[in-house]
Amino acid sequence: MSGRRIKLLNWIVIKPLWLAYLVLALVYFFQSKWFIGVFLLVMNILFLNLSKWLYDIECAAEEDQPRSDNVNSDDLSYEEASVMSKLSMAIAYIIGLTAIILSIHHDIKFYVAITLGVIVAWIGPRVIGRGFLYLLIWVEFRDMDTG
């Protein structure tokens, strides 16, 4: 598994989401919406846990770097696909739960908020997973053009 690809997912996907949730939590704290601020900080901690999980995988991938030459490093391995799948599911569930809580907080009807959260959590992994793949393909082709 390529540690470079995992690092890319961590810095381009998880870190910006972590920063966005932190800023959003601070905005709600300044507006004295304590429940929403604490909720967003808890979601922020979940993003930090995802980042730590990716870092552990990246370190393990760098330790296993000397592999046989018959494996093409440009191909997406089963381990990388599994990591991308789990990561996209976790991100979609966090964003879906956030959509439900923020919708209810902003006086959207309960059944509409639940429907919105379910749609985000159901469609999210497909959209996020494709985004990961397109990002990795773009980076690989960019490296081939410059290298």
Which key features would you list for this structure?
mainly alpha, 0% strand, 84% helix, 4 helices, elongated, 147 residues
Using only C-alpha atoms, the radius of gyration works out to 18 Å
Mean pLDDT: 83
Reported for the largest beta sheet, the result is: none
Low-confidence stretches: none
The percentage of residues in β strands lies in under 5%
Assembly state of the chains shown: single chain
Count of helices?
4
SSE layout:
Blueprint: H1 3-30, H2 34-63, H3 78-105, H4 110-146
Helix pairs in contact: 1-2, 1-3, 2-3, 3-4
Explained architecture:
There is one protein chain. By secondary structure, this protein is mainly α. It has one domain. The protein is built from 4 helices and no strands. Helix 1 packs antiparallel against helix 2, helix 1 (3-30) packs parallel to helix 3 (78-105) and helix 3 runs antiparallel to helix 4 (110-146). The longest helix is centred in the last third of the chain and has 37 residues, at 110-146. The model has no long low-confidence stretch (mean pLDDT 83).
In short:
By secondary structure, the chain is mostly helical.
